[in-house]
Amino acid sequence: MKCAVVSDIHSNWEAITRACEEIEKRKVDEIICLGDVVGYGANPSEVLALVRKISSEIIMGNHDQAIEDVKLREEFTDWAREAIEWTAGVLNPEEKKQIRGFPPIVIDRKRNVTWTHGTPYHPEEFHYLFSEPEAYKSFLALETHFCFFGHTHIPSLFSKKSKEARYLTVGTYQLAKDEFYLINPGSVGQPRDRNPKLGFALFDFDQLTLEIIRLDYDNKKAAEKIRKAGLPTYLADRLL
User: Fold this and answer.
1) Please, what is the end-to-end C-alpha distance for the chain in angstroms?
2) CA 74, CA 95: separation in Å to the nearest integer?
3) Nearest Cα to Cα of residue 34 among 148, 155, 201
4) Are 114 and 144 in contact (CB under 8 A)?
5) pTM for this entry
6) How buried is residue 78: exposed, middle or buried, by Cβ count under 10 Å (0-12/13-18/19+)?
7) How far apart are CA 183 and CA 58, in angstroms?
8) How far is residue 7's CA from residue 129's CA, in Å, rounded to a whole number?
9) Would you state the pLDDT for residue 4?
10) Which residue ranges make up each domain of the chain?
11) How far apart are CA 99 and CA 67, in angstroms?
12) Which residues pair with 57 in a beta bridge?
C-alpha cells in the first residue's frame, strides 16, 4: 500500500499539476492532502477541484479555515490576510461549503497513522511543529505510530524513542515498526527551506519506507499569475 502525501498547495496550479504527473508515474494507491489547499496563489477554484478529485482525505489547514473564519485571519501577516480575503472573494458558496467539511485531524487506527495539518495536540489551533518541545507535546497526544503533518512547509522528521529531529532531503528513508514518528512531507505550492522545488512524500505502509520528492515546476508562471491577480508581490517573489 503506497500513499502520496501532499500538503500546503496554496492555490498553486502549476505546482500541483506537476506533482500529479509524478504521482501518476509512481502508481500510488491513494493521495492524502494535509491541508492549506488554498491561500497565497492565484488558482484557488481550480486547485480545490483537482485536490478533491484526486484525494481520499483532505485535512483542514489554517488558510482553508480562514476562508470563513474572520477571527483566524487576525493571526495572519498583512500579506497573508490580503491573499485569503481575495481568495474568499473568488470562491463561490459551494466551494466554501466543500472546504467547511474538511476535518482538522483523521486518526486511522487500522493503519496506525494520523493525518493533521498542525499538530496532533489541539489540531484545531494550528500549532507549528518546529522543535523538540513541540514534538514532545505531540507525541504525548499521538494515538498511532505514524503522524503526518503540514503547516511548516519544511520536510522534517521527529522520532520518539531515538529522539531524532531532522530536516529531510531528497531520498528514501527506512522507518522502524516499533518507533513513533512525526513527519512533514514538505510543501507542494510554497516551499520554505530555501529550495524553490515543490515537495511531497511517498509512504509505503508495507515496507515502512518514506521517500521525499522534490521537483522543478513552472514557478515563474505561478508567480506571474499572482502578480496579475493583484496579490502581494512578496507572495510571487517567494516562489522564486
Assistant:
1) 35
2) 22
3) 148
4) yes
5) 0.97
6) exposed
7) 17
8) 14
9) 98
10) 2-237
11) 8
12) 32
| Helix (H), strand (E) at residue 114 | strand 113-116
- Return the C-alpha cell found at 190: 510554497
> Which backbone phi and psi does 174 adopt, to 5 degrees?
-90, 125
Show the CA angle centred on residue 199, arms to residues 195 and 202, nearest 5°.
145
Q: What is the pLDDT of residue 70?
A: 96
Distance CA 102, CA 67 (A): 12
Query: Using CA atoms, how far apart are residues 58 and 103, in angstroms rounded to an integer?
Result: 7
pLDDT along the chain (240 residues), means of 10: 98 98 96 98 98 98 98 96 98 98 98 98 97 95 98 98 96 97 98 96 98 98 98 97
Among candidate residues 238, 170, 201, 203, the one with its CA nearest the CA of residue 12:
238
Burial (0-12, 13-18, 19+ Cβ within 10 Å), 72: middle
- CATH of span 2-237: 3.60.21.10
